[in-house]
Automatic annotation (TrEMBL):
Keywords: DNA-binding, Transcription, Transcription regulation. Residues 7-75 form the HTH gntR-type domain. This is GntR family transcriptional regulator. PANTHER family: MANNOSYL-D-GLYCERATE TRANSPORT/METABOLISM SYSTEM REPRESSOR MNGR-RELATED, MANNOSYL-D-GLYCERATE TRANSPORT_METABOLISM SYSTEM REPRESSOR MNGR-RELATED. GO terms for biological process: negative regulation of DNA-templated transcription. InterPro entries: Bact_HTH_transcr_reg, Chorismate_lyase_/UTRA_dom_sf, Tscrpt_reg_HTH_GntR, UTRA, WH-like_DNA-bd_sf, WH_DNA-bd_sf. It holds the Pfam family UTRA. The keyword Aminoacyl-tRNA synthetase does not apply. The keyword Transcription applies. Gene3D superfamilies: Chorismate lyase-like (3.40.1410.10), Winged helix-like DNA-binding domain superfamily/Winged helix DNA-binding domain (1.10.10.10). Signal peptide: none annotated. GO terms for molecular function: DNA binding; DNA-binding transcription factor activity.
Length: 237
């Protein structure tokens, strides 16, 4: 039986289970042992295990399915889109496509270095792309990643629309949360060219830092969005 310290019981069980997930012992999509088995292993009640699993589910580390069991959370294009994409039109949340995707390695700017907490010698992989909705360009996007974490990305022939499932399946990096800053900005010449709009057109600039479960920043993303046909929506609870 795994040794637990003097924390509340469910917190101790939750921490022990989380460590198995974060260390990769339990991979995304894996079925966890049932509550009875976990309760026996840790020497606690099934109610304590259930509370620990509920807490992990609230943090999106696991997914609980009635009649099937509890699984390590796995990003898919649909779940990622639902959790992390907040642009809507009159019909609901939009699902943009991508075009003009470019990938390159570069020395980081000061903002990239700070946002990604890079080592002094660290470099970045930059993904630039134009995202479209109903064949119209609406987002000019630059994504910066640590080369040390995503070196194999350069070898890929294609880059998918939703990247977070790719991060998880190909690089073992799960995005757990994001922080965003929003502001109004005028479209630069480069952005105006990619979005087919006049220079100076007002755009919504969304600056995002994505973090893994350990709190390490893994992605810095800047999206310049036209909002004549879409809007940003957020629900606060």
């Amino acid at each position: 039986m795994e040794k637990l310290d003097a924390q509340p019981l469910y917190t101790r069980v939750k921490r022990a289970l989380a460590e198995r997930i974060l260390s990769g012992i339990w991979a995304p999509g894996r079925l966890l042992p049932n509550e009875f088995q976990l309760a026996e292993e840790f020497g606690v009640s099934q109610g304590t295990v259930r509370k620990a699993l509920d807490a992990l589910a609230a943090e999106h580390l696991v997914e609980r399915h009635q009649g099937r069991g509890t699984f390590v959370a796995r990003h898919t294009s649909d779940t990622v889109h639902f959790r992390f994409f907040q642009l809507y039109d009159a019909g609901g949340r939009i699902q943009p496509d991508s075009r003009d995707v470019r990938v390159a390695v570069a020395d980081p700017s000061g903002r990239e270095r700070a946002a990604l907490a890079l080592a002094p010698e660290g470099r970045v992989i930059r993904i630039t792309r134009t995202r479209t909705h109903e064949d119209h360009p609406i987002i000019d996007e630059q994504i910066s990643l640590s080369e040390a974490l995503f070196s194999g990305l350069l070898e890929r022939e294609t880059i998918p629309n939703t990247l977070y499932d790719l991060y998880q399946t190909d690089f073992g990096i799960t995005v757990a949360r994001v922080e965003e800053n929003l502001r109004a900005a005028p479209a630069s010449e480069a952005t105006a060219r990619r979005l087919d709009c006049p220079v100076g057109t007002p755009v919504l600039a969304i600056e995002r830092v994505a973090f893994d479960y350990s709190g390490q920043p893994v992605e810095w993303r800047v999206s310049q969005c036209l909002t004549d046909s879409v809007f940003y929506h957020s629900t606060l609870k």
